[in-house]
Amino acid sequence: AAASLGxxxxxxxxxxxxxxLRGERSEALALLSSFEQPADQDWLVHQLFTVGAHDExxxxxxxxxxxxxxxxxxxxxxxxxxxxxxxxAGASDxxxxxxxxxxxxxxxxxELLDIRASVLHYQGSYREADLLFSEVIELYKENxxxxxxxxxxxxxxxxxxxxxxxxxEVLPDLLGSLALYEERGARIFYAQTxxxxxxxxxxxxxYDRALDALTESVAIFEQVQVQPFYVHALAxxxxxxxxxxxxxxxxxxxxxxxxxxxxSEALNSKLYSAMAFIAASRVSRFAGDASAAAGxxxxxxxxxxEGGLLELxxxxxxxxxxxxxxx
Length: 327
Hints:
By secondary structure, this protein is an all-alpha fold. Helix content is about 75%, strand content about 0%.
């Protein structure tokens, strides 16, 4: 009977992991609630992060705010939840305290340095972040572990390098990351990377490829429960229809901007709120509503500044300047 119980538990864990990779949050959470014994907390954090269940992760952290009972994998995931919510200081503190521990394995050090690099990116220290992301990628590869760590670091380095205007140069990192996610069937991370790819294509004014990437990502996001990156995809779609006006832009640009705004409200995230407000400001200006454009831009600046998000602060201020021109 004990063996049978163990097999049942193992089967349930495998099912949770399969649902999580496919982004099926309701199914994964329902299975988790059926466990007779509480799931291992570090395994649980990994599955919750994979399905984008950030509120549940925040609840786990609230029970042990110093994070000392979590392993390095969990610290990595928790830190990214904190960064998504604009709490850079909390993410940094969690990682830096853990980096002080002696004898950290290479892959654990890679995860923690990945957090440090991401915090540096959000704070605007792009050159330091670039060097760290490259070190992280090599650490992951040297230790032959964490395929998802390699994929995440590749796409994070690509996003960071966009700050240097290296638009075409980042494509190999993003496409390499995309291939890893596709190979593993990690469709949520695959969809997220498509959104990042659309960011590059928008910068290159390659609107057809941007639209293809966003259309595919949205098709995936619409099959699962709301993901934070869905806001990013919708905001980029709104901006795309402003930057490349078509006969459908007056309908589609506001549609995507309003959906981004509505979803961002439920996420409790300075990062995604700022993205949605910037898109809404640009769409309002496109529609000739200077007052709404200015209002959204101000809210974008406030969200970005409160979150300590330098890149988005710059973009929000640019949206505010554009709105002022139209008033």
